[in-house]
Amino acid sequence: MSEDTNIEEEPKEQTTDAESLRPKKPSNRAPEGIRAFTVCRQNDETGISGDGVVIEGATFATGHTVIHWLTPAPRGSIAFFDAFDDFVKIHVSSHPSNNTIITFEDGEQLLYKPDGSVIKNSAHSEQEQTN
Description:
By secondary structure, the chain is mainly beta. The chain has one domain. The chain is 9% helix and 31% strand. Strands 4-3-2-1-5-6-7-8 form an 8-stranded antiparallel sheet.
């Protein structure tokens, strides 16, 4: 004969204080974490998205990038890319006369010039120019 044993587990206490819910330092699998950015177009060569800040986005540690178009108001749309560079090729480099500025949450900026060059302004260092 077997005895039925009813073992009740004590409920685990969920913490809801702000510090315990704050995002933690990324693991080895995701050394970069999430990096938020905005996209500002100084010009709009197509006349569709407008100028000024037209996109807010985030790049994940895996490189996947999600963008939220802020136009048309009030909602815009969402797009997913396998890599940040894929997003840049489609929505930035393909419109060189827009003079697009991508600004990351840490203050770093990338300015995409009409001649194809990219000027990098780091929040901590001097300007760098790449072709």
